[in-house]
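Batch job 17 of 40 flagged for manual review because the log was empty.
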Amino acid sequence: MKLKTLIILLASVASFSSQALEISSKDIHEGQLMSSKFEFSGMGCSGGNVSPQLSWSNAPKGTKSFAITVFDPDAPTGSGWWHWTVLNLPASTTHLEQGAKITKGLETRTDYGKPGFGGACPPEGDGMHRYQFTVWALPQEKIDLPVDISPAVVGFTLNSMALDKAVLTATFVR
């Protein structure tokens, strides 16, 4: 009887974990170097400054909107670098195309000082940096934050309320 209970419990855990929010991309891959197409254009970098294609699935019950963030924890700032913050994507959204123009949602200020995608741009010779592309499942349709809000406040807000999140970490080096 104990073995049967253990098997049922393990099966329940396996089915639960398969329903976790997932993120994927046709353009970037876990732990792999990104193309210069996704590098910033400015501040000494000369890339295409194009956002990669992103897809997500298995949103938890109660998801009313999504957010997307891109964060470099390796930036030599003492606090990382926010490359993209997108809020209020409708719950029906399951992907963003390469070079996405956000029309249903809100892009807030990044550490480049303005809203919109800002590609990878680690300092020359600073080694490999990680870029964490995160999709956040949220319990409300709209987060009321101003477009010029600090990206750290966006990150704090998302962490305080997310139903689930999924992270795809790509790398870049100059």
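Reviewer: the log was empty due to a logging misconfiguration, but the result itself is present. The chain has two helices and ten strands. Unflagging and moving on to job 18.
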